[in-house]
Amino acid sequence: MTSRTLFFGASKMTFKKVSHKKVRTGCDSCKRRRVKCDELKPICSGCIRHSLDCSYSTTIDTSGGLKPGSPDISPFSFSDFKLMHHWNICTAETLAPNAALQRAMRECIPAMAVNHRYLMHAMLALTSLHMAYLHPTEIEQHERRAAHHHSLALPLFRSALASVTESSSHALYACGHLVIKYSFASPQSRRGLMFSPATGTSSEIIGLLRGAFSMHGYAEKWLSNGPLSFCMERPLDENPDFSQNPNDSYLVQLLYLLLADCSEESNLCCAALNSLRRLLAMASTPGQTISVKTLTYSWAVQVPQKYITLVSERKPKALIVLAHYCVMLKMLDSFWFMEGAAARILEQCRQNLESQWHRYLEWPLSIVGVYGGEK
């Protein structure tokens, strides 16, 4: 350490020159420019200031692993920083129906995403789709960015699901719900939300719904005591009066059809239909404390797994019940990521039913309407 002495008149001031430890880590852009990097993630201050892409290379030792203390790989760019900004000022507000849930989206999820990369990618993927929705002239660019982040989020998300812990449960729960929203809004959903045109098999949307909401069951204690506790919804009444739903008579008529025989298929479809009746009654109950969105999504968890199999096999009665579920999905059309989802699923049900079954779709069609293709 050296010192310098300066004289100002009769006063003497001594400044000690502090030596800096040479930093060999930092983002690639700062290394190329040979400037000190503060190593903020996902984008350092220098790259923000100079509008540069920010990424971190990995230091590999001879054993093929990361050297102790080496920085994480950062696949995020300056474009992603702009997406994060859009999430905070716009997208987060559009994902939830009330102030508490909006706060969770705007504050809690970004904070958790800093430590859970799958959540960060899921957040950026959904934001990219929102940008595509808002800016149709740039749709290809934004959808490509969305697909990029979604492809990075899913493997990390699935890997983390293999060993859920108390500390990871909150981020996994949040990520599951973002992936659901992405699945409804993605370009692929416009071509085959319930059934894939390429393979003919049922899509993963119901599986995603079941997975996300089942976590609430086995990790409820953790979730209730964590950063998302204030937005955990509790039902007003889990056994509502079906008459609260003014349209319950249409579902009762369908129930009589299903009860015409005592086959296992009919019993499974009856169980799925009664779950739908209960949820619609809850949604119609004054003072209900659970959002319509949560009630709608939870149907996929409540129906028997064997009923889901019947849907994938395109059994007529199962598809008719699914078509009636579209009436509840229609309630979510005001959310940009759900817009048109009910009509698309209903149209797929209609296309997979022979004409003699179409008369049982009259009520759902009158509520949901006919899907007219992509916007």
TrEMBL record:
Keywords: Nucleus
SUPFAM superfamilies: Zn2/Cys6 DNA-binding domain
InterPro entries xref list: Fun_TF (IPR021858), Sterol_Uptake_Regulator (IPR053157), Zn2-C6_fun-type_DNA-bd_sf (IPR036864), Zn2Cys6_DnaBD (IPR001138)
One GO MF term: zinc ion binding
Signal peptide: none
Any Pfam family the entry gives: Zn_clus
Domain Zn(2)-C6 fungal-type: 26-56
Protein name per the record: Zn(2)-C6 fungal-type domain-containing protein
Species of the source: Trichoderma gamsii
